[in-house]
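[Archive record]
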Amino acid sequence: MISEEEARNRVLEAARTTPERTVPLSKALDCFSAREVVALLALPTFDNSAMDGYAVVASSCAKGARLRVIGEQPAGRDRQLRISPGEAVRIFTGAPIPAGADAIVMQEDTTREGSEVVVNVDVDLGEFIRRRGADLAEGQKILERGEQIRPTTIALLASQGFTDMTVGGEVNAAILSTGDELVTPGKKLDQGQIYDSNSMLLQALMQGCGASVTSVEHCPDQREPLFKAIRRGITNHVLVITGGVSVGEHDLVQTTLRTLGASIDIWRVAIKPGKPFLFGQANECAVFGLPGNPVSAFVTFLQFVRPAVLKMMGAGEPSLRTMPARLTVDLVNEGDRPHYVRGKIENGAFVPIGRQESHALFGLNRSNALLRVAAGESLKSGEIVDVQLW
């Protein structure tokens, strides 16, 4: 049995990035940039008005000043207007600033009288003008290599005129659940059987990483069907098997993998829940064997499978996001393995949720965070702890 840190390092070292690809910008959401990207244009690209109102020369705009309106500048093509002291141009939000103007008076602060406008407030130099490059300068870095592309990132890239992006590669994954006790939802349960929830859980988690799930299968504890199912699964980048990875008489996954020529690089990790974790490689496929209990499968997926999949897709930082929170109860881990406690973040506080047992799916469903309590560690209510968000 090895430490979770060593296991994670081994998994990440073995994870091979898939070939990068170019996609339309509209299809790049949640992908990871394969390049560092810098701004081609300043934002704003020209001085423009932040308000509907009048472009003026501030020095000629004391409260009560009467200005002659010489033209109008809507948003769009620059009409190349120019003003002098005592003049004003009707202007609209986003419109280019006329030459000579150095302030904008809001429409609400003026009174229009025919061809003139009366200024009802004092005007400050530069007021309500968005200066060129104030938000972003040419050459400024806007995207790191490995950074995930969010909806706002797409908007920023579109503002620079990009139509496509070079991003990390796709990852195909297969999900395989095993066990005679499992029944596909919708079918009749016999005495001693349970519905297969792990397949749906792992499929959703994998899709949440951005991977493409090509198949979801269930296999009984029989050698021949298992052999065929694993052989199909290892044609993908990733195969995740849940159940059957231990060493009991009905746990056939390890021997079947070896029969197919797979190497078993990790077997059993010092983590709770999830000790019977397996990682191996079959040709170009990364094979993960997760425990059959749903909470164990969930925790080991987040700690080992998710980082590997994200690295394959080109992520620069594959770890779960963490945040500090105030612990609401005393917690003691008297065991010899770190324990991932399931709980909920509420108003900056971490509250353990439900039964902290590997089968307790209801409590897991009500959780949104994990707290790692090291072996032998004692934590007191009120302490600030780092929790993982998922």
Summary: Residues 48-130 form a domain with the Molybdopterin biosynthesis moeA protein; domain 3 fold (CATH 2.170.190.11). Helices lie at 4-14, 151-159, 198-208, 223-233, 253-259, 294-312, 361-365.
